[in-house]
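Supplementary Note 3. Input sequence used for the single-chain structure prediction.
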Amino acid sequence: MSNETTISRPSPADNLNRSLACAVIAGGASRRLGGIDKCLLPLGDKSLLEHILGVLSAGNTTVLINTNRNLAHFQALQLPIISDTEVDHSGPIAGIIACLSWLRANCPEVQWLLTSGGDTPFLPANYVARFISATAKFNAGVVYAEYRSRYHYLNSAWHVSSLQPLLQLKALGKLSLKEALSRFEHRRIDFSDQVQDPFFNINTPEDYKLAKQKIVANLA
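The predicted structure, written as discrete structure tokens, is reproduced below.
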């Protein structure tokens, strides 16, 4: 497939929230879509990444992008671009570790990292606000999203104290986010009030076709 598009820089946020930062975890291989960089696919008049950044940037937080290739595509955004420490196809856990490590070194005041995949273009407008509220209220290591009894482990906020345990799990070859999350005290945020699945993600050509249909319906 050759449907990649260019991306534009989101508007800079004023009065950044310093307790939580956001990251787009887009370092996957996208094998079921022919190895393309999924987040650069066009959807409507924007790329998937632009849809996601529009929501994350509106939360007035620092926003990171975790990716391991096509770095030149992202330079215009002037956002921190974080690559995995080891590009060993360890999955999202490697991206979360890389972003937590960057925050510890560069933004020590930030206590939480809120993540989203690079293929979930229908995030709700209050995504960041809901997680900011939840992390302030819950005494938990991880807070993650639920939609109508389905759990979305990559749509989650990780406390910075989770970095070392995550490194240990990765070293042991335990790469599942579900398993990693189970090692921490955790809470869920229920997004079932949303009409459509806000965490619909694009993994296959069929998913991409359906996403195009959804975006047309949303604009109707």
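Residues 85 and 98 are 6 Å apart (CA to CA). The two ends are 27 Å apart (CA to CA).
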